[in-house]
Design goal:
This protein has about 475 residues and is an alpha+beta fold. It is built from 13 helices and 17 strands. The longest helix is centred in the C-terminal third of the chain and has 25 residues.
Length: about 475
C-alpha cells in the first residue's frame, strides 16, 4: 500500500477523530488531522494530547457475553482499533470493566498518530466549513464543537437547534414492561403517522399512586443545572422542554394535565375504567425493542430515577437503556441529515463521526470514528465498503444513527437523542430456543449470550467474504485470521 492518494482531512483529535485517522492511514491513504488544542482549549480539556479522556477513565464492561459495549470492544479489536489497542495496553484493575490510565492512554494514541508516516497533525482551529478543495472530510468535533463551526453547520443543514441544554427522557427495554398491567392504546384510538391507533404503552396510576409519585419527584435528589454561559443564568431547555420534576413543582395536578393526562384512554385490565393518571411510553426504535417515557425528561440523579420510576405500575422491573438527564450538546439530527455512509446529505464531501452524530460514550464515539475512517478510505480508493451486518454491535449502532430511530414525535419535532450501544439496538433473534422454567435473570442472560454469539458469527462472516468492490478488506481479514487482532 502507498500514500499516493490525495489526503483526507479529519477535523477533531478526540477519540473518534484519532480512530478515523488511524483507519484511513493503515489502508494506505494520507490523512491530515486538524486539532485546535492546545492553541485553543475547551472548558473540559486540560492538555494538548490526542484522545484525552475528560470524564471517566472507564470504557465500561468488557464481557461480550453480558454487555453490548463488550461486544463492541470485541468487534473494534477485530477491526484493529487504535483506541482499543491503547486501552488494552494501559488498562487498570477495574473488575469486569475496561478502565485505563488516562495519561498513558492519551500518550499512546498521540505517539501512534504523530509517528505514522501517512498522518500529518496540524494544530489549528477549523472555525468555518472546510474549503471546497477538501473533497473528503470527516468532522469529529464532539459535543464541544467550536461555536463558530456549529453556526456554519446550522446554516448549512437548516437545523435551528444544534447546540443546547436539553432535558432528555429515560428509555426502557420493551421486554421488561409488565403488559399484565400496561396496555397498548393511542389517545382516543387515533392513529398517528404510520400508526395503528395502539401506538403507545400505557401504565395506569390511581389517585393514591399518583400523589405518592408526585411526592417522590419533589423529594428526590437532582443533578445541579448548568448555565449556558459562564456568566450564569437560568438553564435554557431544548424547545422549552421542562424536566418533569420542575412541572411537578408548579402544582400537584400539573402532571395529570400534562404528560400524565389520562384523557382518551381506558384500562382493559380493569373493566375499561378510566385511570387517574397515565404514563405513556412511545416506541423509540424501528425494532420495537426500546420505549421512551413520553414527557419524562428529567435531571433527577440516576438512582432516584430508578427508584421512583419503578413505582409506576407496569415498570416495577423496568430495565433502562438510558436514564434521563441534562446535556449541553452539539449533535446532528443524524437520521434526518446523514446518509448510511455518515455523509451529510446537504454536502456529501462532509462525513461525521463521534458524539456529534448522536452516539454517547467513549467507545461508541471511537467505533463510529472507525467506521467513518473505513468509509472515507474506501471512497478515496474508489472502493465500496460493504455494509456491516445490523446484528453486530457496530452495525446496530450505525443503523440507529442513520435510520433505525423513529425521527419525529406526533408534534413533528425531532426526538433523536444521544444513546449508548445497548441490546435494544440489536434485531431480535428470529429463532429463540425455549428456555423452560427459568428465572427472569437467567432468561435475560441467555438472550444476551445468544445475541453476542450471533454478532461474533456475523462479523466473522462479513470479514471472510471476498468483496470485489472493497479490496482493502483483505487486510483486515488476514489480520483476523492470523490472530493479530485478538
Amino acid at each position: 500500500m502507498s500514500g499516493s492518494f490525495a489526503p483526507i482531512h479529519v477535523i477533531g483529535g478526540g477519540l473518534a477523530g484519532s480512530e478515523a485517522a488511524w483507519q484511513i492511514a493503515r489502508l494506505g491513504v494520507a490523512v491530515v488531522l486538524h486539532e485546535m488544542r492546545p492553541m485553543r482549549q475547551t472548558p473540559a480539556h486540560r492538555s494538548g494530547e490526542l484522545a484525552e479522556l475528560v470524564c471517566s477513565n472507564s470504557f465500561r464492561a468488557d464481557d461480550p457475553l453480558t454487555s453490548a459495549v463488550g461486544i463492541l470492544h470485541r468487534e473494534m479489536r477485530a477491526l484493529d482499533s487504535l483506541i482499543l489497542a491503547g486501552a488494552d495496553a494501559h488498562k487498570l484493575p477495574a473488575g469486569g470493566a475496561l478502565a485505563v490510565d488516562r495519561t498513558e492512554f492519551s500518550n499512546f494514541v498521540t505517539a501512534r498518530i504523530t509517528t505514522h508516516p501517512l498522518i500529518t497533525l496540524v494544530r489549528e482551529e477549523i472555525s468555518a466549513l472546510p474549503p471546497q478543495n477538501w473533497d473528503n472530510v470527516i468532522i469529529a468535533t464532539g459535543p464541544l464543537t467550536s461555536p463558530a463551526l456549529a453556526t456554519c453547520l446550522r446554516h448549512l443543514t437548516g437545523e435551528r437547534d444544534l447546540a443546547f441544554f436539553d432535558a432528555i427522557a429515560p428509555i426502557v427495554h420493551r421486554e421488561t414492561i409488565d403488559m399484565d398491567q400496561a396496555w397498548f392504546q393511542s389517545r382516543y384510538d387515533k392513529p398517528g403517522p404510520a400508526g395503528s391507533g395502539a401506538d403507545y404503552i400505557n401504565c395506569p396510576l390511581n389517585k393514591e399512586q399518583y400523589l405518592a409519585f408526585v411526592d417522590g419527584l419533589l423529594a428526590a435528589d437532582r443533578s445541579a443545572p448548568h448555565a449556558l454561559t459562564e456568566e450564569g443564568g437560568d438553564t435554557p431547555y431544548f424547545n422549552g422542554c421542562l424536566p418533569i420534576e420542575v412541572m411537578a413543582e408548579r402544582g400537584r395536578e400539573t402532571l395529570r394535565h400534562g404528560p400524565m393526562k389520562p384523557f382518551g384512554l381506558t384500562n382493559p385490565h380493569s373493566g375499561k375504567s378510566k385511570p387517574y393518571a397515565v404514563v405513556q411510553l412511545r416506541q423509540d426504535n424501528a425494532l420495537g425493542t426500546l420505549y421512551n417515557m413520553v414527557g419524562f425528561q428529567t435531571r433527577l440523579k440516576h438512582p432516584a430515577q430508578a427508584e421512583i420510576f419503578r413505582t409506576i405500575p407496569g415498570l416495577e422491573n423496568a430495565s433502562f437503556a438510558r436514564f434521563g438527564g441534562i446535556h449541553r450538546n452539539t449533535f446532528l439530527n443524524a437520521p434526518k441529515l446523514l446518509d448510511q455512509s455518515l455523509r451529510l446529505k446537504a454536502d456529501k464531501r462532509l462525513r461525521f463521526a463521534g458524539q456529534i452524530t448522536g452516539c454517547e460514550g467513549y467507545v461508541e464515539s471511537a467505533a463510529i470514528g472507525l467506521a467513518a475512517g473505513l468509509m472515507a478510505a474506501a471512497d478515496r480508493k474508489g472502493e465500496v465498503l460493504p455494509q456491516l451486518p445490523p446484528t453486530t454491535a457496530l452495525g446496530a449502532l450505525l443503523n440507529h444513527i442513520t435510520g433505525g430511530h423513529i425521527e419525529t414525535t406526533e408534534a413533528g419535532a425531532s426526538s433523536f437523542q444521544p444513546m449508548n450501544v445497548n441490546f435494544g439496538l440489536f434485531p431480535p433473534m428470529t429463532e429463540e430456543k425455549p428456555l423452560g422454567r427459568r428465572s427472569r435473570t437467567e432468561k435475560a442472560m441467555n438472550r444476551k449470550a445468544a445475541l453476542s454469539q450471533r454478532a461474533e458469527h456475523d462479523l466473522a462472516t462479513w470479514l471472510s467474504v471476498d468483496h470485489d468492490d472493497f479490496g482493502s478488506i483483505s487486510y483486515i481479514r488476514d489480520k483476523l485470521r492470523s490472530g493479530q487482532t485478538k
